[in-house]
Amino acid sequence: MLFVHSSPRALCPHLEWAAGRVLGRAVNFDWAPQPVLRGTLRAEFYWEGDTGTGAALASAFHGWEDVRYEVTQDPTASSDGARYLHTPSLGIHFAQTDTAGNVVIPEDRMRYAMEVAGSDVLALHRELHAALGQPWDDELEPFRHASDDNPVVWLHSFAG
């Protein structure tokens, strides 16, 4: 799935062209007003593609810093899934996902979090939240709920 959570109206055709270049066909998004941020539009677009297409879509949107978007690619029998989140204030976040949609934190990222945090439990908590993409989820959550009239099942993480 591709979720454009908010985009200035002027960028909407450019986002469609960028997605179309990646997918190899013309695409038209069903744009709707984004009530969370006046003057912006939102769209949801289901796509199918080879492994790596999600990364290509996220890369194609790179550079439009005023756009909030989320790209998810389902896992296959031979590859993990992926989740790309972008907000203007945080930039882009990538997370590997398993067959159930859970974010998978690689060993090297876990070791980095432990090294940076040392014996500070709160620092480890912050590092693990960042590795999971929690700051991006927190910022995107109000924009996601703009589609509550068209229910989508979201994976939520709960902070303790």
UniProtKB/TrEMBL annotation:
This is DUF3145 domain-containing protein. The lineage of its organism: Bacteria, Bacillati, Actinomycetota, Actinomycetes, Micrococcales. It holds the Pfam family DUF3145.
